[in-house]
Structure formats: C-alpha cells, structure tokens
Write a structure and sequence with these properties.
Largest sheet: 8 strands, mixed
Order of helices and strands: HEEEHEHEHEHHHEHEH
CATH superfamily: Alpha/Beta hydrolase fold, catalytic domain
Distance between the termini: 53 Å
Helix content: 40-55%
CATH class: Alpha Beta
Shape: globular
Radius of gyration: 20 Å
Length: about 300
Amino acid sequence: MKKILLVGLIVVLLVVIGLFVLPSFYLSSTRQFEEQSIEGQGFQLHGYLSEGTGPDGKWVILVHGNRSEGQEHELYQNIRAILPPEYSVFAVDLRGFGGSVGNGENQLPETIDRGADLAVVSNFLYENYGIQEDQTVLIGHSFGAAQVISAAQDQDYLLVIPIGLGDWDALLDSDSEIDGYIEKFYANTGIRVDRSVLIEDAGKFTTESFSRGCPESPVWFVFASQDDAIPAHWEAYKSLSEACPGLYNWSEIPLSDHMYGTEMSKLPGPLRGIYSRLSLSLLKYRLDRILNSVGS
C-alpha cells in the first residue's frame, strides 16, 4: 500500500511540475519592448520594438489577428515575449487596431488587406537599421496569417510563418459568413467594409490565390491541433510541397486551440491559465525550432 501511495505521489508531483512549473519557467522572459510610431503614406502605425542579441541582424515582424486590442491582446503579448532573444522584433498594430486607432484616421482604407502596413514596417527597418526583407521573418496569426501569406507570394522574406490561417474559401462560399465577418471587423476596428470589397480582398487569402505558383518566400504553416481550418489547407499544402520543393513546411501544436487558451471562457480562471501556459509553451518550443533552423 505504501508503495502504491508513493508511486501516486510521484505521479501527482510530475503532473504538477509538467502543468505548472515547467511551462511557467519556459515562458519566463525578461525581454523589454518600447513603443514605436512609424510614418506611412499619410498615416502612422503604432508598434512595439525590441532589439535582439544576435549578430546577424535577423528580425521578426509580428502581425496580430482580428482583435480590437491588436498587439495588446494577451495572445500577442505572449507570442512577442517568447520569441528567441537572438531575433529583433517589431510587433505592429495594423491600421484600425490597438494603438494605430486614430493615427491618420481619415486615411483608414475600407478594406481588409493590410499589405501596405507590412510594407511600411519593412521600409522603417531598412531606413533605420539597414534591414532587408531577406533578413526578416513575417509571423502572423489568424487575420495576420492571411496578411503574411499574401506577402509571401511576391516578396522575398527570409521566412513567412502563418499561424492558424483561416478557411477563407469557406467564408466566401457563405453569405452569412461574409455578413458575420463584416460585422466582426466593424466591431473590432470601426471600419465597415463593403461586401464587394471584402469579397475581392478575401480572394487574396484563399488557397487558390497562393496555389497559382511558387512563392517568393519560404512558408511554414503552423496550426493549433484544434484549428478548424486544418482539413481545408492540408490537401493544398501537400500539392504545394510537391510543386515547390523546399518552400513549404507544416507543423501542428498539440493540445492547443486557435487562441492558445487565452479566450477559453468555459474554463475557470486557474484552469484556463494552466491550459494557456501549456499551449503557449508548446507553441514556443515549435517557434524556437523553426526560427533556429533559419539559415542553418
């Protein structure tokens, strides 16, 4: 009986260490960010900048999803904090989101395409740090994933990592989904996109749009294991990998949902925190491996 109790205690301790201690230690970060405003064509963008320790001038441009807080959402605060310290980071608030609300408000386009914002950040890095696009990794989540995979088609970035790319084909096939996205985008940005404009812009993010030819930038798809869009993209990925050898990779993060536990309202606070730390630590592990493989 004592041996059984001892084994049970050891198992409990291992579970506690696995769920509490290791993720918290792994996610601890002393990385400091400073707020930064940069000029576009008649507008300003807000963001968070942190210079890395690496000698080779590699940067990450981090692009958030369709959340009104932009980079101040819990998920994106965590992602930018856990990126490898060797990389410098610019986490940008796209126009209409976060700190970019009200900056050049009259210049806000009634569109969901934010490719111009990425170009502004790239120009800023070149003018202030001498950084070329081929020294830059684009990472985007959800809505941001659509922006970065679109940029990969005709820009030569070091690597492009779309995390949780949505199923834009399914959205365009449903009138109710289109209407719902228009309302969601308006709620988060105050920008009401015309239906015809949304359909045109969303067409840039479909599997057809990035399957027409090989991209200029290598692409590494990352999905949470519970992402609904995995089946929609898996077949396209296999075809793309065959057509464009060496330009596509794929990873899935186990035990994770689309928002990595940051919005799990069905779980009580402590359990949500545990789940989120576990999911984020698994995401960090994968991003570390991906980014450390770049250029190696």
